[in-house]
């Protein structure tokens, strides 16, 4: 079955700097790659997603890139702010329903 | 409803007791999922419902875990003879049929087995 690996497990950046989180997946049939943000004690919330027919997608300060050949995808956050501090999860789906999640990255943005 | 609703939000139970966790999905979302999140860990898939049937139960960790869904809406996850390793946050999500995007999570039930 699908396996998703995520790195780093923790990331600390200075406010205003960029943050990059990387994920790799094992199943070449995966075609949907969402990213979720989970603030402390709250539910995971979808922040951006990408499909396999697209190489990059941007939404304001957030972007996701996908390299199908290498089977990896990344989340890029520019001009980080303290409110970006949270745990971020990547996920992959080979089917129309099940998401397999990475282990999460705890991002700390230092003021 | 407006969002995915889970109850109770917190549950403390004694080892060996049975517990029931409830999930009420977004109206019109026929797909429903249960995930488990252990402390500081990722989200572990447990079971998927499409309507009232569960075509994928591959993530249920043991036969102490079961789930049902009635009326294509509310789902109940039951854990029998709870063990300390069952302590985790149990998250429910729902989505429109045939789409893994638009996955909306509930706030979860934090289960503590003492």
Write up what this structure looks like.
The complex is a heterodimer of chains A (111) and B (114). Chain A is an all-beta fold and 111 residues long. Helix content of chain A is 0%, strand content 55%. Chain A contains no helices and eleven strands. In chain A, the strands form two sheets. In chain A, strands 2, 4, 5, 9, 10 and 11 form a six-stranded mixed β-sheet that branches. In chain A, strands 1-3-8-7-6 form a five-stranded antiparallel β-sheet, with no helix packed on it. The model of chain A has no long low-confidence stretch (mean pLDDT 93). Chain B is mainly beta and 114 residues long. Chain B is 0% helix and 50% strand. Chain B is built from no helices and eleven strands. Chain B has strands at residues 5-7, 10-13, 19-24, 31-37, 43-50, 53-56, 65-69, 75-79, 88-95, 104-105, 109-113. In chain B, strands 2, 4, 5, 6, 9, 10 and 11 form a seven-stranded mixed β-sheet that branches. A four-stranded antiparallel β-sheet of chain B has the order 1-3-8-7, with no helix packed on it. Chain B is globular, with a radius of gyration of 13 Å. The model of chain B has no long low-confidence stretch (mean pLDDT 92). The chains are: A mainly beta (111), B mainly beta (114).
